[in-house]
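Re: your question about Exosortase/archaeosortase family protein

S., sorry for the slow reply, the queue was backed up all week. Below is exactly what I fed in.
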Amino acid sequence: MNEPNKEQFDIDMNRKTAQAPFGSSLLTGFRGVSRNLFIVLVFLLMSLPLFTTFNEILTKIVEKTGLYTFLTQNVVPFETRAVSLILRPFGIEAKPTVSHLFIERPDGSTTGIFFSWNCLGWQSAILLLLTFVTGLSGNFPISRKLEVILLGLSGTFLINLLRISVVTMIAYYFGQLVATIAHDYGGTLFTIAWFFFYWWFSYKFILEGE
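Result:
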């Protein structure tokens, strides 16, 4: 068996071994969060019908618990009133109740939008907590991390109100069927877009800003 000469040995030493797609170190910071959000977006788009069905099943399960009663009596009425106030500058008069928002459409018909605990945006709250794991993993000051957390919590809450308001406006102009489609499909894209903007803003102006 021939022994390798010096030239062959140098080539072998300098040759880079192939790495698996996930063999590199985990991405952190905005790139890590963006990659994770993109993976979540692809997964949701592929399984959106199944996700919607599972969401409905989970809603029925939670409705039988005490948590459903608490959210219905304390949080849902606040959201119906808040959305009615958001719609008022757009010339849409909505009458809030403890669980519905009734709007009179331009054709004279009345559309009732039902608010359940599921409209509170618990999915986006869970996703926000998951992005904190990657987004705040860097060596940043505690004060800036707290700013990012407060911005994320308050911003996600307001974005959910805006999302519900947009769906209500769609119901006002195009009817309940179109609003239901926008709620089930467009809401997911709207939420993911917010998270991309939120983490870009956080790294640009808070975490890595001067």
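The mean pLDDT is 78. DSSP finds eight helices and three strands in the chain.

Happy to talk it through on Thursday.
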